[in-house]
Each structure stands twice: as C-alpha cells, then as structure tokens.
Design goal:
Blueprint lengths: L7 E8 L3 E2 L10 H14 L11 E5 L11 H8 L8 E4 L5 H15 L4 E9 L14 H6 L7 H12 L3 H20 L10 E2 L5 E2 L11 H5 L20 E11 H6 L6 E10 L8 H13 L8 E4 L4 H10 L13 H4 L3 H19 L3 E8 L3 E9 L2
Parallel strand pairs: 3-4, 3-5, 10-11
Antiparallel strand pairs: 1-8, 1-9, 2-8, 5-8, 6-7, 9-12, 11-12
Helix pairs in contact: 1-2, 3-12, 5-10
Length: 385
C-alpha cells in the first residue's frame, strides 16, 4: 500500500424482480439459475471490466441450505460464466446479509486487501425457507434465553406490546407501503434496478409481484392475526416472503477511474449492533446511532432512508425512536409491499436508495434493518453520479 486514502465505490448494481414465494414467477426456478442471470446482467452494465479483475464474489444468504448450500457464491459465479480464477464466499447475517456483503467488500477494498469485489445476496424462500428444526436447537439456550429461537412474528407482537401500537396504526403503514410502491412502479421508479430474468418455465420476469394497489384499511380490517391468538400482527402487516437476487460491483476508486467506470456512489460507513432477541425488530435503534457516530453524519443529512419493513410494528417503533422523517422513509414503498428476500434485501434496498438519489439529485442514503436473533445493521452511501 502507498499510504494514500482508499475509497470504495459502487460502479454497477442490479436485481431481479421480487417474486412471491411459493406462488410467484421464480418459485419453480433454481436460485443458482436466477442469481447467475442477475450477476451476469450487472456485469454487462460495465463491459469495460475484465471479469478476471474480480477478486471475490461475496454472497449474502439467510438460509444457505438445500439449493443454496455448497457455497452458493461460488456456484452462482460459475453459473454467471465467470472464469475459474474468481472465488466466492457465502456469508450469513440473516436479514442484513445483502448489506453485510457490500460492507465486507468495501472494507476489504479500503484496507487494501482487494480492489474489485462483487457483493450481493440471493434467497429462495420458496425452496429453502423453513422454521429451524427443533432437534437442532440448543437446549441450554432454549432454557435460558427465550428470544434465541422465538418466531419473528412473536417478536413483532412483543414490539407492538412494548410500544402500545394499535392494529389501525400498523394497517395504515401497510396501506401506505402498497400505495407508494404502486405509484413508484407506475412511474417507472423501480425499473432502473431490475434486470430481466428468465424462469425455468421460459417466462421473462421484469416486475415486482407483491404490490397490491387495492389494499385499503377496510380490506385489512377483516384479517386474522397469524402469530398469536388475539394478537395484532397479520400477514398484511408483515413483510412478504420473496424470491430474488441482487448484486453490486464494489471497486477501489482509482481503479474505477483507470477502467473508465464512473463511480455511482461512495461507501461511507456501516455498523451493526445487538439488542434483545425477543424484540429483534428494534435493532436499527441501536445500529443507526453507531453508523452516524462513525461517519460524523446525522439523520438530518440523509436524503432517503430505506428502513426494511420486516413488520409494521418494528418499523413504526424504529421511526419513532430515531425521529426519522416520514417523507424520507421508503418513498418507493417497503417490504410489506415489495417483499423481503432475506439474504438479498440489503442489496435490493441499496439499489433502491441509489435510484432515488439519482432521480431526485440527493446526496446521502441510509439503509437499515433489524436482524433475526436480536441485531440491527445500518449503512450509508453517498451518490456521486
């Protein structure tokens, strides 16, 4: 290293459409296939990058089992047609895996260990998502730490209890999520990130499938709670289960200039934090202040905030405690409408934020989410082009 300051920049990104798990357009397609198509599509956006300059592929996956086992990052790299010289690693930080992959790539670049890394995430909630089998659960943790294996829905109920959130408040967030997502879709605001993916059946998929423009307070009022008898959390106020993949190319800024690749955004900072597992949805409350302290920025500096809507309960609580301006949060809709393909979500949200910043001329974007098991993550990016 020559001692000069190194910067990690985003030079390309893209994703598949977010498809409904089990009944959507990608439910019959092997995730290695559709993730490979997305990775290839992202690289086609920067044809001046020689594939052999890629030093690693870091893939986030929350459920790296079944079709996503056997180091899916390397399998996807092979499926995308990358040369044998390109390695891959699969990482898991549950719901923030796709943001963690970008942060890990950026940190490696800033440290001088690498110059060009592909980062992203992929999830097949159709094929690989299931409750953790009871026979694999640790007995000591079951007896001594009730939140460890608690269902995510029950953690949302506990957040609703703690913050005394009404069913109507949560239903209203769901209505707004679908309204904003539908408006964004109609106006073409979601399209720039989406790469066409061909399903196993030969269908070319180009639009997010979970948006329901007909959603209303009246239509949601009749839904039954789905996690606790007499509870307040319904399927409509929970993120949708989703199949999707997303990738970004992260590069050292000087190398990007050498290759003639305009940097789209600069990686500014990233932080993770732990919290009580039984209210895991509150994770951003702890992660956001950490990343602000690291970067010297404030919530007021952010032009857009992508807060993953794992559940309306936790999103409302986080917005309240962090004093997030409503107009800056999820302007193109959130996971209640668009879905939460767990390992890919962080990369999907990064692309959404960068698209919004480009469209509006803004500068800073914050991506944050809660994480199963009691954590939160937050990352900041600065738009450059």
């Amino acid at each position: 290293m020559n001692g000069s300051k190194r910067e990690a920049v985003v030079v390309a990104y893209g994703r598949s459409a977010c498809c409904k798990a089990r009944k959507g357009g990608l439910s019959g397609t092997n995730p290695i296939d559709y993730a490979g198509q997305v990775l290839r599509g992202v690289l086609e956006r920067i044809p001046s990058l020689p594939p052999d300059r890629i030093e690693d592929v870091i893939l986030g996956c929350a459920m790296p089992v079944k079709h996503m086992d056997y180091n899916a990052a390397r399998l996807i790299a092979r499926r995308a047609g990358l040369p044998d010289t390109v390695p891959g690693q699969t990482i898991n930080r549950f719901c923030s895996s796709g943001l963690q992959s970008i942060a890990s790539a950026a940190n490696a670049i800033i440290a001088g260990a690498m110059d060009c890394v592909v980062a992203g995430g992929a999830e097949s909630m159709t094929l690989c998502f299931a409750p953790h089998p009871a026979e694999y659960q640790n007995q000591w943790l079951l007896s001594n730490d009730e939140g460890t294996y608690m269902s995510m829905g029950e953690t949302a109920e506990r957040v609703a209890d703690r913050y005394e959130l009404s069913r109507e408040e949560m239903d209203l967030m769901a209505v707004e999520s679908h309204r904003k997502a539908y408006q964004a879709q109609c106006q073409g605001k979601l399209a720039p990130s989406i790469l066409p993916v061909q399903s196993a059946e030969g269908r070319v998929i180009t639009e997010d499938e979970g948006i329901r423009p007909e959603t209303s307070m009246e239509s949601l009022a009749g839904l039954k709670p789905c996690f606790r008898p007499g509870g307040r959390i319904t399927a409509a106020t929970s993120s949708q289960t989703t199949d999707a993949a997303a990738f970004a190319v992260i590069m050292e800024a000087k190398l990007a200039r050498t290759l003639g690749l305009p940097p789209l955004a600069r990686f500014v900072g990233f932080a993770v934090a732990g919290c009580e597992a039984q209210v895991m949805g509150l994770g951003p409350i702890y992660a956001v202040p950490k990343v602000m302290a690291k970067t010297g920025l404030t919530v007021e500096d952010m032009d857009v905030i992508e807060l993953n809507e794992a559940f309306a309960a936790q999103a409302i609580a986080c917005m309240s405690d962090l004093n997030l301006p409503v107009e800056k949060v999820n302007p193109y809709g959130g996971a209640i409408a668009l879905g939460h393909p767990m390992g890919a979500t962080g990369t999907v949200l990064t692309g959404k934020a960068l698209d919004y910043l480009k469209d509006t001329g803004g500068h800073y974007g914050l991506i944050t989410m809660c994480i199963g098991g009691g954590m939160g993550a937050a990352g900041i990016f600065e738009r450059l082009n």
